[in-house]
Amino acid sequence: MGKQEMKNLSLVSHFIYNCRKCGLCGSKFTARVPYVCPVKESTGGFEHSTARGKIILAQGLLEGAIRPSRELAEIIYTCTLCGNCQIQCGSIDNSTGLPLVDTTQVIEAMRADLLRDHPELVDQAYQAMFNSTRQYDNPWGLPRTVKERWAKGLSLKDVRKEPHEVLLFTGCTIPSNPALGGRARKAALILQKAGVDFAVLGKNEPCCGSVQKRVGAFDLAQEMKEKNIALLNSLGSSTIITLCAGCYHTLKNDYQAGETPLKPEVYHFVEFVSQLVKKEKLAFTKKNSLTVTYHDPCHLGRMMKVFDPPREILKALPGITLVERAASRENTICCGAGGGMRLFGGGILAEEIGKAAVQAARDAGAEAVVTACPFCELNLDAAARQLGFPLAVYDITDLVSEWSGIEE
Amino acid sequence: MTARLSKELFQKLSNIVGDKYITSEPLATYVYTQDASVFGGTEAGIIIRPGSTEEVSQILSLANQRRIPVVIRGGGASIYGQPKGVPKKNILLDMTRMNRILEINPESMTVTAQCGIIMGKLQHPCRQAGFYLFCPFAPLQIVSLGGWISGAAGGGGIWRDIVSMTVVLPDGTVVKTGGGPGSNVRQKLSYNRVLGGPDFTGLFIGDGGSFGVKTEATVRLTRFPEVIRASIFEFSKLEKVLEVIKRHVACVDPHPFNPIMVFGSGAMRNFMPDLGDSDSFVVMGMMQGHSAQEMDAKLDTFNALGEALEGQRNPALDAMAATMAASSSSESETMMDWLSFFNALGLACWLPFTLPREGFAENYRKLIAWRQKRLEETERRGYRWNGTFEFFTPSDQSTIIGEIDVFFQNTSTPEMFAFVRTTMQEFQEYSHEIGSIDVYNQGVMSYINGRFWSPGFRQLFQTVKSALDPNLILNPDLWMSEQKDTKRK
User: Fold this and answer.
1) Among partner residues B27, B34, B97, which is closest to A21 by beta-carbon distance?
2) Torsion sign across C-alpha atoms B248, B253, B259, B261
3) What is the pLDDT of residues A178-207, one digit of tens each?
4) Would you place residue B328 in the very low, low, confident or very high pLDDT band (cuts 50, 70, 90)?
5) Chain B residues contacting A via beta carbons under 8 Å
6) Neighbours of A402 (CB within 10 A)
7) Complex prediction ipTM
8) Which helix (H) or strand (E) holds B388?
9) Interfacial A residues in 91-120 facing B (CB < 8 Å)
10) CA of A138 vs chain B CAs: smallest distance (Å)
11) pLDDT, tens digit, for every residue of B352-379?
């Protein structure tokens, strides 16, 4: 069987050959690691569902032992890219301190090569998302105006017309989805209440390209990155606050690497609000008894190490009791929506994975799950409904807004 | 659907385990050709993840009727590869779905679990209950209980703690071994290894999975040692090290709570890069138990032994011993996972041995000399190696197990992988020539071990094998293949 070109995979081949195929990524168990791979746990559990299996397939592709196929595409896209396998692997290059095996990079590269060379093999839902991105600058097929509707009546600064310090970057998913309950609006009201000098881009806010990159549209994501950096660097903002964990990871990590990095400081909303709380810029007037657990979004927690700020906020809310699930912080089991999984196969597996996270929250004695990512919120909420659990799912913005006495 | 095994068979097997737990997709079967070893296995026709003893029984019964080879896989953690069976015709049983703990019995001090459970997952609740499951030197987080019993339990002493097993014989018959419900149908507890009949439990330990599929096992627990002491000496002469071991094992059972671990200079450089050019041996004694007074006394005795034999102290090693003593009572130590450490060293060329303590010094030097020649060849070929790891320990009063591994730079070169395979295999052939009988009853090692069997031992094996597996369906190639797995390049 002839070798494939596999341009992107070749660039990360060192990760493949650093992997010892020991299987730790599929089998580790400790008090804080009930299991590693959410896909393995929610499917038949065959080896190809785990990182070891996918690395073996990647090596097979590089060496020409296997060829791209629809079945291969299905396996490669059945991954949340949550990165727990990489954390639990724990193999570090002692000279650089970097992971010896970066599974998410390998899987993203395989996706990129499949999409580039064999787009016909990949779920067409992704193609629709790319088309929407090109046409509307958001992945969800909605007109650009959805990004300004949420701000109606708030008299917010237009970032391009008025001096400001902070750009509130809402992302595509929150303003596009009615189920997310005016989250952007609440965030803006919180910032207003705290006296933050901020502005928005409205319908001109671009998509960051996170989802596109995760599913393998590297060229499209790179194009978006270059265009967006030029735009965001030209606005005069000293700080960008994101509401979405995926946007945060992309802006803070991807955009700040390369020859022309993003200049403004990037914070997730939870980081910024925790600072406002510490500086006593926000006062919480409400007291309501509620036991919650915090679900660390993969893009915010495991990948960017933002673990403490959301917990600090929750602990500052009067009446809130924070309980932890057995797997939390860097060991958190993915909600199931990562890596484009909600689009893949109708999102059935994503919700199956989400059920485990919801069950774990219930086992920990939580009445509600709080998170800081719209994908996590949607998927956990869907899973809770499917299970019929009376378990509320909130974004942390909801609680901060309510406890601050913000009313609309 | 592959044409390798019929659709009708697939459907029958699917009816046993459910659609979710069976596959014949070529990419799925391809993935199972590899494991933690550089040897791997062969491609199966069908892969099944059974969930119960009953399902395993039905699968084997059907396979036996149809004369279809069956190979077994646990955590995929072998170092010498998997049974090959008949490529593309095998039914491969991935046992890791059978991962439930059935009972922790604090009164009997036993744990009973399904054999597909990974040892780390088994160890954890035992620890929570105040007990300790003795499984030394295993990469706990990847090895299954069944794989450990079948493939490597002979080496580290755990065989003594295996009380009973539920085994599915190749024709589908389910048997229980050990003193308990197997040898007295009125008894519900598996509580003793040998009562009321021969030690059939021992028959299945270290069999490589030749005689049956282990589905459940009861293993003896010990109380978790709350008090740890450690002491480290350096010795320049191997004979002095062996004298420490000799005097130590004369007084105490070296396992599970009183191990002596000896590290060569290459191994120590992995822990302490600033060690320099010292060629000394580092000898660590650990004392684990339940009373500070007792452990302090044992520590004093060990220190007196080290000093009497002119062992040298080193402040850095003293600090290491203090750290180990302080951390060892935590869960992280009992769950100690060397895997990430070794994985970071590079492509492992494992060179393990098991030798009698008597005559060990001469044999160890021969093995080191063999490795030195191979390292010189490595350099002539331009292959780069990152370091070595020399380690040995008495596993009982008369046996020393150890390894003198080499870690190569990670590579994508097939020739180098072949070189590692060849080196591992030829090392075993050489070490067997000088009397090593290694514990890894798996893949390539089973062929080598089998080649050194006496005629009587071979006949006994074949008699038992043909009685239990007359159609030779279960891991059919194990032990008996004379082929060399790799060709020297």
Assistant:
1) B34
2) positive
3) 888 799 999 999 999 999 999 999 999 999
4) low
5) 20-23, 25-28, 30-32, 34-36, 47, 49, 75-77, 94, 96-97, 118, 120-121, 124, 128, 139, 141-142, 331, 335, 337, 339-340, 342-344, 347-348, 410-412, 414
6) 17
7) 0.94
8) strand B385-394
9) 91-94, 100
10) 35
11) 999 999 999 999 999 999 999 999 999 9
Q: Where are the domains of chain B?
A: 7-97, 101-223, 227-328
Q: What would the pLDDT profile of A248-278 be if each residue is shown by its tens digit?
A: 999 999 998 888 999 999 999 999 999 999 9
pLDDT tens figures, B231-279? 999 999 999 999 999 999 998 877 778 889 999 988 988 888 777 667 8
Instruction: Summarize the confidence of residues B436-442 as an average pLDDT.
Output: 89
CA distance A60 to A3: 9
Q: How would DSSP label each residue in B327-340? A: HTTSHHHHT---HH
Whether the predicted pLDDT of B329 surpasses 70: no
Contacts of A75 in chain B (CB under 8 A): 27
Calculate the CA B382 to chain-centre distance.
32
Interface residue of A6, A16, A46 to substitute, partner B, most B CBs within 10 Å: A46
- Chains A & B: contacts with CB separation below 8 Å: 114
Residue B153 has pLDDT above 70, yes or no: no
Residue A407: predicted pLDDT: 77
Name B348's bridge partners: B407
CA distance B275 to B269: 6
- Map out the domains of chain A with their CATH numbers: 7-122 (no CATH), 137-276 (3.40.50.1860), 283-403 (3.40.50.10700)
Q: Shortest CB distance from B36 goes to which of A21, A65, A71? A: A21
The two tokens of residue A338 are: 């990562």
| Integer Cα distance of A90 and B220 in angstroms | 31
Order of all β-strands in the sheet with B91-94: B22-23, B46-48, B91-94, B70-73
Task: Give just the sign of the alpha carbon dihedral A274, A278, A281, A285.
Answer: positive
Q: B101-223 adopts what CATH topology?
A: 3.30.465
Q: Is B227-328 CATH 3.30.70.3450?
A: yes
pLDDT at B4 over 60: no
Min Cα separation A331/chain B (Å): 16
Contacts of A44 in chain B (CB under 8 A): 20-23, 49
- Cβ neighbours for B90, distance < 8 A, ≥ 6 positions apart: B42, B44, B45, B46, B68, B69, B70, B71
Say whether residue A3 is in contact with chain B using an 8 A CB cutoff: no
Is A60 an interface residue toward B (CB < 8 Å)?
A: yes
- The domain made up of B7-97 is a member of CATH 3.30.43.10: yes
| Contact criterion met (CB below 8 Å) for A86 and A102 | yes
Cβ(B286)–Cβ(B227) below 8 Å: no
pLDDT band at B335 (very low <50, low <70, confident <90, very high): very low
The continuous run of DSSP H or E covering A167 comes out as: strand A166-169
Per the structure block, which two tokens stand in for A35? Answer: 């299991």
Q: Report pLDDT for B486.
A: 42
Residue B27: which of A23, A57, A93 has the nearest Cβ? A57
Query: What one-letter code names the amino acid at B225?
Result: P
Q: Looking at chain A, which residue has its C-alpha nearest residue B125?
A: A31
Contacts of A62 in chain B (CB under 8 A): 412
Of the candidate ranges A367-376, B177-186, B339-348, the one whose mean pLDDT is the lowest = B339-348
Q: Tell me the whole-structure pTM to 2 decimals.
A: 0.95
What is the distance between the alpha carbons of residues B324 and B34, in angstroms, rounded to a whole number?
Answer: 35
**CB-CB neighbors (< 8 A) of B32 in chain A:** 47
Q: Does A21 touch chain B (CB under 8 A)?
A: yes
Mutation target to probe the B interface, by most B beta carbons within 10 A, among A29, A32, A52, A57 is A29
Collapsing DSSP states into helix, strand and coil, what is residue A371?
strand
